[in-house]
Design a protein that fits this description.
By secondary structure, the chain is mainly α. It is built from twelve helices and no strands. Helix content is 75%, strand content 0%.
Amino acid sequence: MPETPTLEPPAAEEERMQSMSFLEHLEELRTRIFHALVAVAIGMGISWWYHQALFSFIQKPILDVLKPYGIDKLVVLTPTEAFNLYLKVSALGGLFITSPYVLYQVWLFISPGLYRREKKYVTPFLFSTVLLFIAGGYFGYRMVFPAALKWLIGIGGQFTPMITVHEYTDLFLTVILGLGIVFEMPILVFFLALMGVTSAGWMWRNIRYAVLGIFIVAGALAPTPDISSMVIFASPMLVLYILSIGIAWFVHPTQRRAREAKRRKA
């Protein structure tokens, strides 16, 4: 007799993940990257109309430090340097403007690997990712970068500062974007724990190695070699790591199953 097909319960069907081949993953990645790049290009075009105002905002920390020296402008060394600078500034502005859409493309790429009920996290994902990135950039702009510039310029007080826009902008982007990316640690841990790749227990047991890694990253990102600058960079990273342990505990599959079993018993 033919075997009677087993009907899958609705709950199990809801929990079933979408499966994609390797080539389908590559095609999906290509599509999402293309959409994100088009969006950033459009945002860059919009930001170009405000490139001078954007750079005035970017150069404010260094001009505040250079004001006692009687310097109110940075230096360009080649005819194309100002144009290249404004392109970078416009690209940065375009990235910030379109960041919700770009992050939505990231979500569309990773969502096939999640259960259907887990896809409800799209709104919290977009909101928290943008918020953390802006918080990291703001922390660097208001706290880290001015203190680093004051120390760097002050240590060479016997010299006349002549800072080019190229060198300054590269330093600015390294610090601000670096901290913005570092502040995304809870989001990364959220998805790793959600998929069972990591757990709160594993993160806690390896906290000593995490602290070492955090200070290595802080030393690489810090614009000055002194200990205080490294500590300023490392402090929020340590707080974010502790916060990430709590997030990993809450969203890990074992904890979710335990809460689900408790809810059913109730």
